[in-house]
Amino acid sequence: MNQPRALRLGVAGPVGTGKSSILATLCRELAGELSMAVVTNDIYTDEDARFLRSAGVLPTERIRAVETGACPHTAIRDDVSANLDAVEDLEEAYGPLDLVLIESGGDNLTATFSPALADAQLFCIDVAGGGDVARKGGPGITGADLLIVNKTDLASYVEVDVPAMVADAEAARGGLPVLALSKKDPASIAELADWVRSLLVRHRSGTHIPTDPGPMAPHSHTHP
């Protein structure tokens, strides 16, 4: 029986919420047991890819950068061809792979991946963005397969009640999972890694059905 293609897991969220750190954490936790690769997205740079390469979490050739040249959502939602090409090139060069992580460029609360690109997606917010972020909603917060409330170790410095923030997120998500995460908290890191392992089992068995959190809200951008 042929192994199914790699699970493609999208990671989205606003700028500064810790997406690259989450990717690095997942690579450190899982690369010893899974064959992995990473695709990062930035508008004009490969900064996130360089961060991951310098962290030594995967062989450098397994980390690819997509420079979108446009608003971050474009390459993960509207025209995913550049990302699909990068993923398929990695699978062809280093396959069979178990897991490909795809990091969105930093966008707003409405960013979501096309199901044509990601089999599942997690959305990242952080306590430094304010305790009311989860209540503001948006398709990433309400519909992603996993919502991460990140940087919980900073809560006391920014006067955020983490249990209240998590409760707000759970209320917004109708039973979908929420994880309070800190890179300084081994228990939360283990919980994240176990969630990915469980998702991979469902992907391999064919019982995971990719769902679309919903299109981004109508919006426009002004470019110089």
TrEMBL record:
Signal peptide span: none
Entry-linked Pfam families: cobW
Primary localization class, coarse: cytoplasm
Residues reported to bind GTP: G13, P14, V15, G16, T17, G18, K19, S20
Protein origin, superkingdom: Bacteria
Localization terms from the record: Cytoplasm
UniProt keyword terms in alphabetical order: Chaperone, Cytoplasm, GTP-binding, Nickel insertion, Nucleotide-binding
InterPro entries xref list: CobW/HypB/UreG_nucleotide-bd, P-loop_NTPase, UreG
Limits of the CobW/HypB/UreG nucleotide-binding domain: 10-178
Membrane-traversing stretches: none
HAMAP family according to UniProt: UreG
Oligomeric form and interacting partners: Homodimer. UreD, UreF and UreG form a complex that acts as a GTP-hydrolysis-dependent molecular chaperone, activating the urease apoprotein by helping to assemble the nickel containing metallocenter of UreC. The UreE protein probably delivers the nickel.
Record function comment: Facilitates the functional incorporation of the urease nickel metallocenter. This process requires GTP hydrolysis, probably effectuated by UreG.
Family classification: Belongs to the SIMIBI class G3E GTPase family. UreG subfamily.
Annotated protein name in UniProt: Urease accessory protein UreG
Organism: Streptomyces laculatispora
